[in-house]
Structure formats: structure tokens, C-alpha cells
Amino acid sequence: MSEHSADQPVTPLNVVGRSLERNDGLGHVTGRDIYTADRTFPGMLHLKLVRSPVHHARLRGIDLRESEKVPGYVAALTAGDVPHNLYTILGLIGVEPEEEWVLTPIGERVRFKGEGVAAIVAETEAAALEAVARARLDLEELPAVFDMDEALAPGAPVVTHWGNNTFMYEGHECRRVRFGDVEAGFASADHIIEGEYRASPIEHAPVETTGCIAVPDPNGRFTVYTNTQALYFSLDNTSIILQVPGNRLRFIGGMVGGGFGGKVDVIVEPLATLAAMKTGRPVRFVYSRAEEMQISSTRSPEIIRIKDGVMADGRIVARKVVGLMDCGAYSRQTPYAVTKFAANAAGPYNIANVWIDGYCVYTNRTPTSAMRGFGVTMGSFALEVQMDKIAERVGLDPWTIRLRNAYRNGDIKPHRKVVEDATLIETIQAAAKLVGVELAPELQAMTSAPRQAEPEGAVR
Amino acid sequence: MGSVVINLNLAGREVELLVKPLATLQSVLRNQLGLTSVKEGCRQGGCGSCTVLIDGEPMMSCLLPVQDVAGRTVTTMEGLNSPEGPTPIQQAFLDHHGYQCGYCTPGMEIVTTALLEHNPQPTRDQIVEALAGNVCRCTGYQPIVASIAAAAASAGEEVR
After folding, report:
1. Which of A60, A120, A318, A385 has the maximal Cβ count within 10 Å?
2. Measured between CB atoms, does B20 come within 8 Å of chain A?
């Protein structure tokens, strides 16, 4: 049974509830689908980056004289070749400031191990790798910081160009949510229950590595075959970095050999396209497995600290959450992840007094970015472990603690959004049934209906 | 090192190739012969996406110097494909959604081909063991195992 809306006739569903063959199924199982690196073009060149071997340093010089002698060497790109060399991926949605080098200029700092300082294009991949190996960098190594608490402590090495190690949210060093009076809530609580939760970075490690091929078209346009997960983000950022109108760029994607969020950063397309402009030839820039593991972004490491004020019956009356997310050397998608974290850090629970601080912290680690529910996944892990901890402390089972605190339609979330689509209570009830847990009648009687609609005398 | 001429039997077709002796079979298949069902995930024997059959045995082509397979029979997914439609193994992968992004799929099916050749009715443990060298990062292992079990079952029915 299904109803789309009251004024729409119920029609048979053609797709929902049926197992259908995917339209890319036959191509996948026959190995006939063409992924980015499967393509080749006459005269195609290979691009590899000269990368920083250290985590933090001032770049004093780049010496490519030995690289140029490698048979098959064609050209090199350095900072001066990049029309708009400083960028922020999320600049497209108004996030500032621009902060990440496409290629680090001499006199400036490299901020993570593997940061690109020069691109070399050669006739073969082997020649490109040999030329990269022969490049010499003059680096003045600087102290580096890898731990978020250390990065926030006074006297820490400063990663950013604005003087502290946090992304700034409208002038504040964290994304803040304030709802009710959290200190008054703690004062009225029977129990104060605290927890600290940590998550390590995770590499997406798609089996197909990140890559693209940029092909100059006879009409002055460039066709870029790419395995990005974010085709228009890539096109728009490339347009900005290269300072060419978007209508000169034609991006072809769609076939992605695993992404999981690891292929939303705009990293390979601008340089490959720039090299194609400079040489007039197709340029292939495909990561090695080592680059995919070391250079491509990961999920953020996180530290989540929770303090809850809880009544004897299990009701949470105050919740304070301080979350730190490590963006590494450049922010990439992490400022957005922190905002998502802040919006969700109280969990799907109705709590009258909430205080949330979400920090996007810079360190000298590999930049972090999107990965499957980033900003929310680890927060949910922390909160649900905390819920079990609360249940244990007040002597309730894990089902009861969640149902007693579950949000319902009409409740107001800490960031002032009215809940309209709550299904938590019904989902928990269904889950209990599936695993053969008999909930108490008062818990079975609960629904997500707005609280004012409850019959008098109903439990909470 | 200079180039040499070698011969391969490429799924029934004799080919003569001018190669660097230490070039990997993977690079020769992909870059000289255009057989791009042979995928490239790591070039270090870690992912199994480049697996091909050498005289019927599954081997990772990224670890094989091409000179070592001179005179032998090399089979890739292109050589197993049928113009009449999906093979029974491919149909089983389709029916049981034994693929997500598809990048590891040819390697998985090549391994399946060899497994069912040696052991037409493998146990679940034997299927898992056969897949030990093949990585799927979409974490679709359960459907892959189900696909292989179904392929074995359907082959069994054909025999009967």
C-alpha cells in the first residue's frame, strides 16, 4: 500500500519494490564499459607531479634542469603558469577565503607531505616519473602539527595564512548552535554523564584511482574525461583556476570505479587541462596507488566530547557537544562537514538545552574531505555510544532510553528546524520486533505524532 | 633493454608482439592490445582487478613480465564474452547484483571461471577462498559470493 499524497490517485509502482537490472549492468559484467584510464588518444602525454617530501616547509626553489634532460620530457608547469593559483573547492557556494595552491609558489609554504609544486608532462609515464625523480627542491623545513588539540593550543605551528588553525565561521572559530540554557539544564539534572569519542581518518581506497584525460579539440575547446563524482564542481573550479569561460570546457564523466566521496575534490582536472593548453596535446593525469593512498583526501579524524545532564528517569535535559574535525592542510569539503555535524550533534532526540561547538581544525596532515555521511556518521557513532552509556548509568535498557528521548513531529531541533518527518519511534519499534524484543506497553504505544495530539495521561 | 618479439595465444588467436621483455603483461594487454577489461588498480598484486587466465589459471597480469607468458594462452574477459549475450557467469552476476561500480568485476569473473572449471560445485568457503586476492571496495562481497554460487548451481542444472 502506498499513498503519494491525498489528492493523487494511487497508481501501481513500476520500479519501487521490484528488482531491476541496472542499465550499466551488461557493460560492467562484460568488462566493456570504458573507464577514464581505459581511454587513449594519439599523441597523449603523461603528467606527474613533483611533490613535497616533507609535511611543512617554505619552498625556496625548484630545480628542473636534470628533469629536462630526461628523454621524452616535454614541459613543466609551475605556480606562475597557473592563471588563478589559489582556490577553495567550496568557493562555488560562497566559502572563503581561497587557501589552497594548485602549485605552490616559490617563497610560499607547502603544508602537507605530497603537496604539488611542479607538474611535468612527458611522452611516456616512465619518462614523467623519471623527470619527477630528478627534480630538486630547496625546502626550509618548518615545525609541523598533526594533532588537533595541539593545533588549537597556544604556540602551535600555524598552518593557515590567517594566523590560527581554525576555519572561521562568520568571524567565529567554530560553528555554534545555542538552544535554551545548557548550564541551567546541567544544574537541574540528576546525573552528569560525559564521554569522549575519537575516530581515525579513513582512506576511501577506490579500486580505480583518481584521474582524468584532457584533450584539446580543434575548435579551441577542451574535452576532459574524468572519473570525478562532481562533474560540474570540477568544470566550474577548472574554469576559475584556468580563467577560461566554462563553455570552452566539456567534461565527460559518469563512469566511476568507486568513489565513496574520495573523488569530489577538484585536483587533477585543472592541471591536466592547463598542460593540454600549453602543449596542444592530450594529457593524462592518473594517480598511482601510492598517490591515492598518500595524497588523495581521507575522512577527517574527529574528536567528539559530550556532556549530558540526565534526569533519573532517563530524560536528557541538557547536552553540550564539542566536536573537532581535522581538515588537514586545506579545508576542501570539511567546513561544510562541520556545519552538518553542528546541525546533527544533538542527535534525533528532543533536548531542551543544547550547546554545540563544531571546529574545523587545520593540521599538516593530508587534506580531508567528503566520505559517506561525512560530518554526521562519526557524530552518530559518538552519540549512540553515549546513549548506551546513559542507559547503563540510569539503569534503563537501550531501547527505553532512546524512545523516552526520541524527537517527534512538531518538536524544534536546536538549530530551530521544526521536525516534520520523524520516524525514529516507529523505526525503533519495528527494529525491536525484528529482533524479538518485547517493548513495554507504554513504549509500544508511542508514536511520532505531535505531542499536543497525545491523549491526556500519556507518558511524555 | 631492447625489445623482443613474442607470441601469445590470445583466447584462440595467435598474436605476435614486439615488447620490452620486462613490460608487465597488464601494460601490454591494456596499452598495446586495447584489452581494457584488464583493469589497473594498484600495479602491485594487491587488488586482483587485472586478473587474467594463463593456460586457464588465474594470475595477476600486473605482476607478470610479458616474456614469462610467451607461447602461452592468455584469456581476458574480451575472450570470454559471447556475441549471443551474457555468459552464464555474467548472467549470474547480473541476476544477483554481483557488481556495484564494476571496476573489480572482470577480475572477479575471471577467478570464477577458473574456480568453476576446477570445482564445478564449490562450497561457500571455497568460493570465499578463491576470491582471496580480489578486492571490492564497494563492499559487495555477499552478492559476489551469491553470484558465484548461483553460477555453479545453474551450470549444475545444465549438466543434469
Report:
1. A120
2. no
What is the H or E stretch that residue A13 is in? Answer: none
Confidence check: pLDDT of A268 > 70: yes
Interface of chain A toward chain B, CB-CB under 8 angstroms: 21-22, 24-35, 37-38, 40, 204-209, 256-260, 288-289
User: What's the domain range around A95?
Assistant: 45-141+205-294
Looking at the partner chain, which of B86, B90, B137 has a beta carbon nearest the beta carbon of A258? B137
Q: pLDDT by residue (tens digit) across A163-188?
A: 999 999 999 999 999 999 999 999 99
Say whether residue B106 is in contact with chain A using an 8 A CB cutoff.
yes
Query: CATH number for the domain including B119?
Result: 1.10.150.120
Question: Structural domain of residue B22, as residue ranges?
Answer: 4-77
Hunting for cell 609541523 — which residue is that? A144
Mean pLDDT of chain A: 95
With respect to residue B44, please indicate whether it lies within any of the assigned structural domains: yes
Strands A211-216 and B4-10: unpaired
* B-chain residues near A289 (CB < 8 A): 41-44, 46
> Are B73 and B123 part of one and the same domain?
no
Tell me, yes or no, whether A131 lies in a domain: yes
Listed residue (A379, A441, A450, A384) closest to A411, CA to CA? A450
The reply to whether B38 and B95 lie within a common domain is: no
Q: How many CB atoms lie within 10 A of CB B4?
A: 13
Q: How near does any CA of chain A get to the CA of B148, in Å?
A: 13
Report pLDDT digits (tens) over A101-130. 999 999 999 999 999 999 999 999 999 999
Q: Do A29 and B44 touch (CB under 8 A)?
A: no
User: Does position A5 have pLDDT exceeding 70, yes or no?
Assistant: no
Asked if B103's CB is within 8 angstroms of A289's CB, the reply is no
Residue B122, min C-alpha distance to chain A (Å): 21
Asked if residue B155 belongs to a domain, the reply is yes
Chain A residue with CA closest to B29: the answer is A38
Pick from B47, B100, B106: CB nearest A31 = B106
Answer with the one of B77, B105, B133 that is the final residue of a domain.
B77
**Domain boundary residue among A294, A328, A348?**
A294
Query: Is it the case that residue A438 has pLDDT exceeding 90?
Result: yes
- B14 and B63 belong to one structural domain: yes
- Chain A residues lying within 8 Å of B98, measured CB to CB: 29
Contact between A260 and A371 under an 8 Å Cβ cutoff? The reply is yes
Closest-CA residue in chain A for B80? A30
Question: Which band of pLDDT confidence, cut at 50, 70 and 90, is reported for residue A3?
Answer: very low
Using a 10 angstrom Cβ sphere, with 0-12 exposed, 13-18 middle and 19 or more buried, the burial of residue A18 is exposed
Q: Which of A29, A258, A260 sits opposite B90 (nearest CB)?
A: A29
Q: What parts of chain B have a pLDDT lower than 50?
A: 160
The pTM of the full predicted model, rounded to 2 decimals, is 0.93
How many Cα atoms sit within 13 Å of B89 on the Cβ side? 25
